């Protein structure tokens, strides 16, 4: 299996108001064409700047749209083909991680990677032919080392991490939301965003106090020319980390300080995982040291396509933090992953749905062919078409989906049944009319016959020569009977 490196780009934001007021100088420069980033030590102006090369380097005037199109697009495209993908923003507090991931609605060019990704996913879904998709979203945060569901009924409830031999690490009880449109996805993102822990610090008035992971899961069901079906599943993790911070700069005390300590701890666990992965001699990768590294296990050294956006402040008073971010990012680009398409995952819901539909169809076909049509038609109560053995499904949302599918099939069945009933009744009516016609005709025939016999008897002096035997006439109600030969249209 081919391996590929974690992709890393850097993004340097413009100087903020505080930095301008402090008369800060820019120490970061970028050569966008070469993907290079330079940082000048403000305390050693005569030294040449330190130089780093990445898969992309973006400066103050670059917009998220460009970053997405150049570097995030192929990764998200891969997810729609069945790869797992992770995009995460890393950097010190106030460096632009949430700005990059979440972004602003206006100007549109600065919309974040998260809303762009689901727009992209739905475009792919709508363009694909002969393909069925199931798209689901979840949104969690890791706050003070507790995992919380940002879309759950209780956003403060702590959730447990579990490990599954095939699924890997997952969050037990995390709500999954089936989404059918960009608008639905946006609503989910906004709900989760509002529930996220944010607090004021001196470095960022809307500082993220938690790491967040927005996940889009896609199941892709196709049928090839030979009628064979294929199922693939891709998962896209969009991670907005909390920023590393120094108490002296953020002025954090009390709750803010406690949060900062946990944030720094999990970020250093992430740093240790990255170092261990790129150090060829290291056998043990300390994924278990934090919830963040456990959840990102597949994205770092696993089967995922991963992109890291390292966010930087240009200001000289952040030199140490910026240099540390650049070194961190530089190490990350040496991580090797082995991305592979997830074919036929065992827990795929679309497979479960397909099988459920096949089962229901088979039961329906059985009902239809068993000759019990008349019995079924005579029952006035709405038929209970299928006795489906209900299987417990993973989450309430998922159950709703299966219920919806069953409801659809039930409706389709009832409609078909009503049509058959109407046809049957129409046929019964026309048979009744036919019988009336036959009776009337027989009466008139009998009458004519007896008149003829009477006349004959008169003419021959009491002897008749006519017989009343004819071919067998089938009466749908009374069965076969013997009667006179009828005109051909009545047979
Ligand atoms: N490229 C950019 N262009 C314009 N403004 C930006 C840019 N990047 C960040 N900002 C602004 O800088 C401020 C801090 O950004 P943001 O909240 O994204 O930082 P952060 O890295 O998420 O910080 P924290 O770790 O504290 O959550 C915000 O007001 C944001 O609008
Ligand atoms: Mg943030």
TrEMBL record:
Residues that, per the record, bind ATP: 91-98
Q: Does the keyword Cytoplasm apply?
A: yes
Q: What is its main location?
A: cytoplasm
**SMART domains on file:** KISc
Keyword presence, Cytoplasm: yes
Keywords of this entry: ATP-binding, Coiled coil, Cytoplasm, Cytoskeleton, Microtubule, Motor protein, Nucleotide-binding
BP term (GO), one: microtubule-based movement
Every Kinesin motor domain range: 5-335
Q: Which residues form a coiled coil?
A: 403-444
Region Disordered, annotated ranges: 471-491
For this protein, the record's InterPro entries field holds: Kinesin-like_fam, Kinesin_motor_CS, Kinesin_motor_dom, Kinesin_motor_dom_sf, P-loop_NTPase
Q: What does the entry list under GO cellular component? A: microtubule
Q: Which GO terms describe its molecular function?
A: ATP binding; microtubule binding; microtubule motor activity
Cell compartment(s), UniProt:
Cytoplasm, Cytoskeleton
* Known partners and oligomeric status: Homodimer. Interacts with APBA1 (via PDZ domain); the interaction is direct and is required for association of KIF17 with the cargo that is to be transported. Interacts with IFT B complex components IFT52 and IFT57. Interacts with IFT70B. Interacts with PIWIL1. Interacts with TBATA.
Family, according to the entry, reads as follows: Belongs to the TRAFAC class myosin-kinesin ATPase superfamily. Kinesin family.
- Function according to Swiss-Prot or TrEMBL: Dendrite-specific motor protein which, in association with the Apba1-containing complex (LIN-10-LIN-2-LIN-7 complex), transports vesicles containing N-methyl-D-aspartate (NMDA) receptor subunit NR2B along microtubules.
Identification of the protein by name? Kinesin-like protein
Species name for this entry?
Marmota marmota marmota
Q: What is the lineage of its organism?
A: Eukaryota, Metazoa, Chordata, Craniata, Vertebrata
Q: Which gene encodes it?
A: KIF17
